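look at this stuff:

>
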Amino acid sequence: MLITVKLSKFNYSVAQARKNMVRNGLMTIASLFTICSCLLILGLFTVLTLNVNYISEQIQDQCEIQLFINKEVDEARVTEIGDEILKIPNVEEISLFSKEDTLEYVQDNMFEGNEELANFEDDNPFRDSYKIILSDISRTDETVQQLENIKDVAHVQNSQDVVNAVISMSNTVKKLSIVVMALLLVVAVVIIANTIKLTVFNRRKEINIMKYIGATDRFIRVPFVLEGIMIGLLGAVISFGLISWGYIALTSFLESMQFDIFEFITYVQLAPVIGGAFVVVGCLIGILGSAISMRKYLKV
């Protein structure tokens, strides 16, 4: 019996929420448009932040140091240098690229068919080198200095500046996203609150009568809270559909252009994050907007 009564009350609240949305059609559309706009911008910043972080991780994982050896060094000394490199604590793995391997790679991949490069086989202009993978990229500068102190090392090529730039950009995007999201949340809450206020104001006499006959504040409040949640959820669904369509179209376009410099987060990985965030934020905007407006207008 108790369950039946509660279900009946809930059905009444849902029906009243739908009526309120239709009755205040223009304000409902304005609120929906505002929420969609806020969530779309929120989604864009979220997609950007996630992909910047994803690319940053790829760059960090690919952060390698290239150590070049003096030309006059013989093979035995090249092997000794490799052993010395491995003794440095932050070095995880090394790969030797002989000058012969480098020349062959250039001939096959960069200047295929260039007969002039064949003349370099007896007078190879390239150097033996080691590709070095580090255990901790935060200690790159320290490790580079140790590598440069090894005898017969010509120079060390370090791409840490690129990694630092990407990490800095990632942090900037995160901070900017937080500020923009907070501002958009405030705007959306204000719009929803005004929509609910208009609904409550139009029904102030009805609410006054309901209170006189014993209706609780909770019974009166629930339809308006549900109205805010329904507007927020509807905005979340529309925004999620638009973001999904845009992201799938963008990734498909990049694939068709054979843009494979970096990998982007797949839609399967992205969808649960965006979808969950939109539902939570949409409901939160609706609840906050309803709570703010009802606090004043229930005092009739």
Summary: The two ends are 32 Å apart (CA to CA). The first strand starts at residue 64 and ends at 69.
